[in-house]
Amino acid sequence: MPRQSRPVFVAALVGIVLTVGAGAGLADSSSGSASTSYVVQPGDTLWGIASTHHLTVSQLAAYNGIDPAAILPIGRHLALSVPNTSEQGSGGHGRPVTTMSPTIVSPAAFCSSLTVTPGPWGVLPAELQASPSRLALRPVLQRWADFYGLSAPLLEAITWQESGWQQRVVSSAGAVGIGQLMPGTATFIQANLTGQPLNVASVSDNIRMAAAFLAYLAHLEGNNPCYTIAAYYEGPLNLASSGVFADTRTYVADVEALVPRFS
Fold first, then answer.
1. For the domain that residue 253 is a member of, what is the CATH number?
2. What is the pLDDT of residue 5?
């Protein structure tokens, strides 16, 4: 589906995906030093939080990889400065932005100029070849890719980039498992894409949700792999409104290089 002709209801649904968190109260305030994060309270707005902490709404949204118009759930931890670049992001759909781009780069401009040196065709990553337990996940990944009409190599490459196919991986932002799914994203997927309760802690369910979400993004992005990968990393509304972030460009190139290895 062309980007400019997305139905309004689709855009509304995507907005649900972009924010999630847990906890309550100000963080890092007990030491007397300036707070570096804030936990959303009932009645809070992004504008109010930004004003209190001498930030613009755009800055606060960018620091946290969220869309200013998205739902702001109670309990979300919001970074009040650019996150430490050593921290791993949260899997697509609203991960914290670790590298700010000085200028907006549109998906079309980025993807048309992207050059990638692909990995050896059909040669799985050495770490995967050496792990029978992770190799055993390939049929599960391929099953759910087929179920949602999705490219299996694309699903395999993204999930390998996200977690190395390790279900126990949990990011600093709370993203879980093989697909590095944020809790709010998992809720959105179950309510709107799978229509049934699933367990993000289950290997098969986590893979199924990642496949369902990736297929959904592929539809939104007109089945353009480059756009789809970028949307998985930074969220579709961020991609549409803010362009391709600098760290997203690296992520997309890495995934694009991995896809031939799983083909």
1. 1.10.530.10
2. 31
What is the mean pLDDT of each successive set of 10 residues along the chain, which is 263 residues long? 31 35 32 60 80 79 72 75 40 45 79 92 95 98 97 97 94 90 91 93 97 94 95 89 89 95 95
User: What residue numbers bound the domain in which 75 lies?
Assistant: 3-262
Look at phi and psi of residue 243 and say left if phi exceeds 0, alpha if psi is from -120 to 50, else beta.
Answer: left
Q: Which of 258, 243, 262 is nearest to 111 (CA)?
A: 243
Distance, CA of 131 to CA of 154 (rounded, Å): 20
Closest CA to 96 of 67, 53, 69, 66: 66
> Is this structure's pTM higher than 0.70?
no
Q: Are 247 and 259 in contact (CB under 8 A)?
A: no
Q: Is 28 left (phi over 0), alpha (psi -120 to 50) or beta?
A: left
What separation in angstroms does the CA of 28 have from each of 60, 80, 220?
Answer: 17, 11, 39
Q: Please, which residues have CB within 8 angstroms of residue 74's CB and are 6 or more apart in sequence?
A: 40, 41, 42, 44
The closest of 183, 206, 209 to 195, measured between CA atoms, is 209
pLDDT at residue 46, rounded to an integer: 79
Contact 198, 142 (CB under 8 A): no
Could you give the CA distance from residue 46 to residue 245 in angstroms, rounded to a whole number?
Answer: 21
Query: pLDDT value at position 119?
Result: 84
**Total number of domains in the chain:** 1
